[in-house]
Amino acid sequence: MAKVTLKDIAHSYTGYSENPDDYALKSLDLTWRDGGAYALLGPSGCGKTTLLNIISGLLIPTKGQVLFNDQDVTRLPTEHRNIAQIFQFPVIYDTMTVFENLAFPLKNRGRTKTEIEPRVIEIARMLGLETNLYTKAQHLTADAKQKISLGRGLIRQSVNAILFDEPLTVIDPQLKWELRSQLKYLHKQFGFTMIYVTHDQTEALTFADEVIVMYEGEIVQVGTPEALFERPEHTFVGYFIGSPGMNIAPCNIQGDKAIIDGHEIALTRDYHAIPAGAKIEMGIRPEYLRLNPPGGAGLPVSIKKVDDIGRYKIVRVGLNTREFNVVVPELSGMTGDKASLAFDIEHTNIYVNDHLFSGEQQ
Amino acid sequence: MIAKQTNQKAWFMVLPVFLVVAFSAVIPLMTVVNYSVQDTFGNNVFTWVGMDWFKDLIHSERFHAAFLKQLMFSGIILLIEVPLGIMIALAMPKKGWGVPVCLISMALPLLIPWNVVGTIWQIFGRVDIGLLGHSLASLGFDYNYTQDPIAAWITLIIMDVWHWTSLVVLLCYAGLCSIPEAYYQAAKIDGASRWSVFRYIQLPKMQRVLLIAILLRFMDSFMIYTEPFVITGGGPGNSTTFMSIDLVKLAIGQFDLGPAAAMSLVYFLVILLLCWVFYTVMSNIGEESSNGGK
Amino acid sequence: MRLKWLIPAIYIIFLLLPIYWLVNMSLKTNEEILSVFTLWPRDLTFANYMVIFTDASWYSGYINSMIYVSINVVISVTFALPAAYAFSRYSFVGDKHLFFWLLTNRMAPPAVFALPFFQLYSSIGLFDTHIAVAIAHCLFNLPLAVWILEGFMSGIPKEIDETAFVDGYSWPRFFIKIFIPNIASGIGVTAFFCFMFSWVELLLARTLTAVNAKPISAIMTRTVSASGLDWGVLAAAGVLTILPGALVIYFVRNHIAKGFALGRV
């Protein structure tokens, strides 16, 4: 088990280049502590699989260093990095039994039979594979096969890190949940450093202690699930995380007041330092907006659409030409299509050129 | 797989194929069966002889010899072409300009008319005008495929390897190309040796195409006619008189219709039987490696 | 592992050497072939090729071969298309046995059929015609075509058919407008293999022809046994038989691997 450090990593598939647009990964610095559970979250093509392959050694980065416990492994071949990786699709050795599949990584490293057997049985029991330990792997279902892949990743106690590349893609939804909680449990049991790549925010947020959100080859935020939700550091994070995502509306700032379409909203912090000519936006999660009856506190809005999700409702409201999503438990006391929109100022963030701008304390 | 719909009208779609193949296969086969139980002295006078030709054939040394030679030839070329084909397929590039170069140059021998293949090797192996024969002779080897049975055999085997190994290569290559990259990555991570990668990933994934390659090579080498006919004409002596050559000699050369017909039938049945045995054994190995215990 | 490329490279050299030798000889005069041993022509000549291009008994052989191969490819593909569709989409009485029986014909040694074919086609007056050879070659090409096409068709989801029928397409219109474009590369691969096996076959082609439809390969064997000395012309004729195959490979090079990948040759 190891601490994983990435120092100024950049990668371009076309080789070294001066043009930053050629890079699939643009200058990353990260440290992952030993035994942590991390998720790399981002849309397809954001560079998360590239990053994973750099860590596993399947790719050598154009620039920068990969360190395992302060040892430079950038150019070390995969087989000497002592890592495990689980792929999107189950990779199993068809002609081997489940037992042989699980034992394979240990056998290749010259472990004796007496070491291998109890370990295989232990892992198989944890994954619920002990009943068909001696059947051929190719006859199993997709999720059992993926469990074998998982097992092969977990079987070595000494691995530096376990990497997951969207491992639940082929798994049925109801089994996804089961495998995910199994993973979480195994992480607690063994304390491996785990890095989990996904584009599914639920998977990332439930699995990881810390989530790394990537967008167009860059890390836009590293933080706990709460931080990503409460204080997205980039408009992309606000929009990508949460369902529905954060409301982002262009606005003007005058000292400690925000002005949206001529309506003034008082803020708790002072934003004098914003450079002139910058793109300024206000971001607020639908969960932190409230609807009051027309004429009550807040800005006058019209209700455009109501979606009933079950436990709560998503209301789409219009403030002149701007639209906001509001999450409300109940639409009580409201008649007609008019309402007042109230902001929870504590949870209102200001973004300058897409990045979070913390004003000064008043 | 998807369950197929039952539709007896589908027979109408198959009918043209059925009729053409039946015309080309059933009528001639009936003719053969008819001849095989009769004797003729020309002028279309036939007499019923029952199973006599078959009895003669089974005890005929000539048939035994041709059959053994045939079996040996097929065995040898399978032993050479299959491992060689796998080895070349493994070494072939997966991308880049090398792929079309390999594919095109390797497919080339497959598209040369079989007698031209024979001619090429007939010329190539000649001591006086051929590169191979001349080189061997100047290196001091006593090589002459028209007089020495061993040289004739070696020439035929090298020729067949030249002609057909590409088929095994292309089939195996196609099988290899269908293996997702993740398998190789996983093997690296699991610390598998080069041999393990071959044994546990590449070989199982190639199994199906390999079965087809072996069946095809067995079938076609067992039926080989044109190339030895051109190169050696069955000689020297009878040393390269394979079954097809013997059969044509008997049927068209000597016009011994009865024995030739009996031989045809036995020959055909032997191929069917051996193919069936091959197929069953090979698929059993496949099943065993996927069902058996540790 | 650095030297891995050597294996295919050596193999390709091994493949090309005899072909090179044939080309080399075809460009030499007979005197040079027989008197000195030269690795390349000293006295470059195209006279051997001129002999073939000017003598009708030579070049008609190419035309004959081309004609019956084309007829065979057309018959094989057009007849096999509906049959392959039936095998891939429907189950019907005897389908499996029929399929297996078709395949056994691929295993039939042509030598077995040589004589009966000769008699059959003579008796119906088709002896020494292109169509006779084309139909005879269907014996192994039709089963092959059905087999390859069935593989490609099974890879096309059934929903395509169903959607088309719901949209009101009749079967023939659906087959031509929608289905055939979908398996175009499969048809290409099939035609390639039919071409290949018809083009390279000699025994049946020779047995079923005398003068009018005699294929080039048979003309070559005759020359060998008769004069046996005109090596230059023989080599030139050989080179010319390789060209059509080389051309066809070049055009389908991107599809070959796919066809082989289906494992249905």
Plain-language structure description:
The complex is a heterotrimer of chains A (362), B (294) and C (265). Chain A folds into two domains: 4-239, 3-Layer(aba) Sandwich (Rossmann fold), CATH 3.40.50; 248-361, Nucleic acid-binding proteins (OB fold (Dihydrolipoamide Acetyltransferase, E2P)). Chain A is built from eight helices and 24 strands. Chain A has helices spanning 48-56, 98-108, 113-127, 142-154, 173-190, 201-207, 225-230, 235-240, and strands at 4-11, 25-32, 37-41, 63-68, 71-72, 83-86, 161-165, 194-198, 210-215, 218-223, 247-250, 252-254, 257-260, 263-266, 269-270, 280-284, 289-292, 299-308, 313-319, 322-328, 338-343, 348-352, 355-357, 360-361. In chain A, the strands form six sheets. In chain A, strands 6-7-8-3-9-10 form a six-stranded mixed β-sheet, with helices on both faces. In chain A, α2 (98-108) crosses α3 and α2 (98-108) runs parallel beside α4. The mean pLDDT of chain A is 86. Chain B has a single domain (61-291), classed as MetI-like fold (Orthogonal Bundle), CATH 1.10.3720. Helices cover 73% and strands 3% of the residues of chain B. Chain B contains twelve helices and three strands, in the order βαββααααααααααα. In chain B, a hairpin with a 5-residue loop joins β2 and β3 (46-48). With 265 residues, chain C is an all-alpha fold. Chain C folds into two domains: 1-45, no CATH class; 55-261, MetI-like (MetI-like fold, Orthogonal Bundle), CATH 1.10.3720. The longest helix of chain C is centred in the first third of the chain and has 34 residues, at 56-89. Chains in contact: A-B, B-C. At the B-C interface, β1, α1, α3, α4 and α5 of B face α1, α4, β1, α5 and α6 of C. β1 of chain B pairs parallel with β1 (90-91) of chain C, so a sheet runs across the interface.
Task: Give the helices and strands, then pairings.
The complex is a heterotrimer of chains A (362), B (294) and C (265).
Chain A: E1 4-11, E2 25-32, E3 37-41, H1 48-56, E4 63-68, E5 71-72, E6 83-86, H2 98-108, H3 113-127, H4 142-154, E7 161-165, H5 173-190, E8 194-198, H6 201-207, E9 210-215, E10 218-223, H7 225-230, H8 235-240, E11 247-250, E12 252-254, E13 257-260, E14 263-266, E15 269-270, E16 280-284, E17 289-292, E18 299-308, E19 313-319, E20 322-328, E21 338-343, E22 348-352, E23 355-357, E24 360-361
Parallel strand pairs in A: 3-8, 3-9, 6-7, 7-8
Antiparallel strand pairs in A: 1-2, 1-4, 4-5, 9-10, 11-16, 12-13, 13-14, 15-24, 16-22, 17-21, 18-19, 18-21, 19-20, 22-23
Chain B: E1 5-6, H1 10-36, E2 38-40, E3 46-48, H2 52-59, H3 61-91, H4 98-107, H5 114-125, H6 131-138, H7 149-177, H8 181-189, H9 194-222, H10 226-231, H11 243-253, H12 257-291
Antiparallel strand pairs in B: 2-3
Helix pairs in contact in B: 1-12, 2-12, 3-7, 3-9, 7-9, 9-12, 11-12
Chain C: H1 6-26, H2 30-35, H3 47-54, H4 56-89, E1 90-91, H5 95-106, H6 110-123, H7 130-154, H8 158-166, H9 171-182, H10 184-200, H11 203-207, H12 216-226, H13 231-261
